[in-house]
Write a sequence for this structure.
């Protein structure tokens, strides 16, 4: 616990360093304690808006000296309380560090500050013929996406953040700044520190620069939606498309309830049935070939026909609907908060996992629309809960526990892309057992005083609670 | 140093565990101290051939108890002394653990023991419609390939080992067995231990199982060679192909001297000029489109025309020639050993790096044919040295140092795929500076007594020599 007296002293020193960019204004603290999910707000004691890596380094040194926890913060779109200030402490809001530092168009890479969001980055890339494909839906910051190993709708074609980060600059817990790799496309130079910090949720250091792979803007893009008579037909189509080796760029599943939410939210008129959203990237001939193959797979499964979005405007409208599923889902039950699940299973087990889960939702009397990156075997339920109804929350948590158990039994993971945060600590232990001890040993080695986003991913000592507050 | 008295005692206990699969026969020790490169042989004190993970666990516990170094050994094809027994100790030869444990064709993944070689694996996959694409040339073991983060000719299309290992089973230095991940295609469940052990060269634990991604056997494959008037035209063609986004499966550069070696070794009649070897994978229409685009880029650069290998036999002959460049290169100077360099630079800097290097080779009076995975910016020189000529070896080492400095100045790495081993320890310090301290901290946390392949990648304590012998 951070005593207020010491916070006052630290605040004075921070003000000396960065002036008004260190603040204890209650509105700002409150805004940095909230998240988009159901977790209770946990505001920090102070928020600082650094301008560069050297400021981050000096702030981290001050925290190391005083034992104050540090919670890095990007766009605030994480879903597992990943940036909650469990023990109070200092929130490092990285949003002022949002510049493109070096674009290497010939090498298809870019070096950015971590506070830039994916949409800001793509806006700056528009005229280069290149783009950054990772799309988790929300307009998350690149640093936050790296920290949760985010993926989203295009991972099936372009990989996740682990595949698209070439190198990082990181401020370690003792204030040293390291670079994890050079700009070469591949390297066997020692331990893969890049991949260690990607997905570490800020518990091993503060990311101050990210070098990303970029991809050529596809020459042609086809998008389509296809409704199905039932969920199984939709899922089997997705599996068939992947197993045929069609290099689909996106293949997203929405169940009938989610389609109802999307129609209402975005004023659209889609059929309210289990639906796949497709996108194909390539040369005009290549895209036509891919689309034809996918249509044939869908027709075999009783698909009710492809509706094409041919103009950029139609396409953007189609995918905006998909990107807004969180808000569209919340619209199905005004006043509700969402508990968002994130299991991911081998694709051959997906039909079984989804059908057992559908039955469980019904038996649990929960409202839980489905949206899934089915090409990767990853799907989300938005369990819509009344935040004032303790019995319902308990019922939802019990359901979530069964869902994870089911996914693990099918050789899957409790989280495909949202991270462990504070919400899935016990699930991680179930999933990886003694491997979590190896993670603890690494954390202890790189952050011996446990100041870097403490209480996330695992409890540093067995038997410890999620928070010391 | 391991005292012989204690080796006798350990040998007795090993014999009790595994019988004749523990041996001190001089021929076996000698065979496990050699490598394909120029490094002096460093044989272990004992070689053990374990049959399963539980035996590995018991052997590791014995070594932990007695402080005996453990060096995991696969096919012995590494090039940087990665499996040299610098301090003697116990060599774990994994070649008996070469079974396929579980093939999941629907999910396109396979779980194997680490001793299986890539050719053994692909032979077993032949009738499944799937294949494992990573091809470092030599018939390396999968465990060894994971440990050096190997890549090779198809990385430009299919990625490296870091992209194709889904999960590992690892015996840690204290004898505990962990699994780093589940079988799901993606996960955000805690630190990416999979990627930490991939490329760790056996310094953090012994890999006992590997779960690999597989890929659909391409419907159509086109292969071709194209000679160029000079090296720059060949390299600029490779750069142009990559930058056009053509999803080429392989694009390999051989310089004129290397072509002479290949012709002599494989009794072929290729033009002895800088040459690109191409391969395209896809649907028949897609492959024709890719090949046409690449031909146009080559023609723009003055390429001397594509020669196609159309039948599987011709294709296999073409790529066998490429795969044997190490032996073909050695044939250019009978009795020589090869010092193999491995720098990798951003592709936009490749022409500059190669042309400066060509001049340096000449000025250094070295014989050094070039073979490169130019699509990734990675190339090798086989510096052919007389192992008895100390002056020439010193000249070659000085040249290698300048090559690495040049690559680092161009934002590249000292090793694209061979690893650091014992040969590039100082280069790693130059390349990553204080990041190497973070690697040391991780090593100390997971292997506090430094028994796992000691002396590789970095010196555990500053100022320490590469070997204590």
């Amino acid at each position: 616990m951070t005593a207020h007296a010491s916070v006052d002293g630290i605040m004075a020193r921070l003000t000396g360093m960065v002036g008004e960019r260190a603040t204890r204004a209650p509105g700002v603290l409150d805004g940095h304690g909230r998240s988009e999910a159901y977790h209770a707000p946990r505001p920090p004691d102070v928020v600082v808006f650094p301008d560069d890596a050297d400021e981050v380094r000096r702030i981290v040194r001050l925290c190391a000296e005083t034992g104050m926890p540090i919670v890095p913060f990007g766009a605030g779109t994480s879903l597992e309380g990943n940036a909650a200030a469990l023990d109070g402490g200092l929130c490092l809001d990285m949003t002022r560090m949002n510049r493109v530092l070096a674009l290497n168009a010939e090498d298809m890479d870019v070096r950015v500050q971590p506070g830039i969001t994916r949409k800001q980055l793509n806006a700056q890339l528009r005229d280069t013929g290149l783009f950054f494909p990772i799309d988790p839906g929300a307009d998350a910051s690149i640093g936050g996406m790296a920290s949760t190993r985010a993926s989203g709708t295009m991972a099936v074609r372009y990989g996740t953040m682990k595949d698209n980060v070439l190198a990082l600059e990181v401020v370690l817990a003792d204030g040293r700044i390291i670079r994890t790799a050079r700009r070469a496309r591949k390297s066997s130079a020692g331990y893969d520190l890049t991949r260690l910090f990607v997905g570490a949720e800020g518990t091993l250091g503060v990311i101050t620069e990210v070098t990303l792979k970029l991809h050529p803007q596809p020459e042609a893009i086809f998008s389509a939606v296809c409704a199905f008579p039932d969920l199984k037909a939709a899922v089997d189509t997705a599996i068939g498309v992947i197993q045929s080796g069609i290099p689909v760029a996106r293949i997203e599943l929405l169940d009938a309830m989610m389609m109802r939410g999307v129609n209402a939210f975005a004023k659209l008129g889609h059929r309210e049935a289990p639906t796949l959203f497709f996108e194909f990237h390539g040369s005009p001939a290549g895209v036509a070939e891919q689309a034809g193959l996918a249509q044939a797979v869908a027709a075999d499964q009783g698909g009710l026909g492809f509706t094409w979005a041919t103009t950029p405007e139609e396409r953007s409208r189609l995918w905006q609907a998909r990107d807004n599923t969180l808000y569209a889902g919340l619209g199905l039950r005004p006043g509700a908060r969402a508990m968002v699940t994130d299991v991911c299973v081998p694709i051959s087990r997906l039909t079984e996992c989804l059908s057992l889960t559908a039955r469980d939702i019904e038996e649990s009397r929960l409202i839980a629309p489905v949206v899934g990156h089915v090409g990767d075997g990853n799907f989300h339920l938005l369990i819509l809960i009344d935040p004032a109804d303790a019995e319902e929350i308990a019922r939802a948590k019990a359901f979530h526990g069964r869902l994870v158990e089911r996914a693990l039994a099918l050789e899957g993971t409790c989280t495909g892309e949202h991270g462990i945060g504070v919400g899935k600590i016990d699930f991680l232990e179930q999933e990886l057992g003694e491997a979590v001890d190896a993670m603890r040993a690494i954390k202890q080695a790189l952050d011996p005083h446990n100041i870097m986003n403490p209480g996330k991913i695992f409890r540093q000592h067995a038997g410890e609670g999620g928070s010391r507050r």
In short: Chain A has 17 helices and 18 strands.
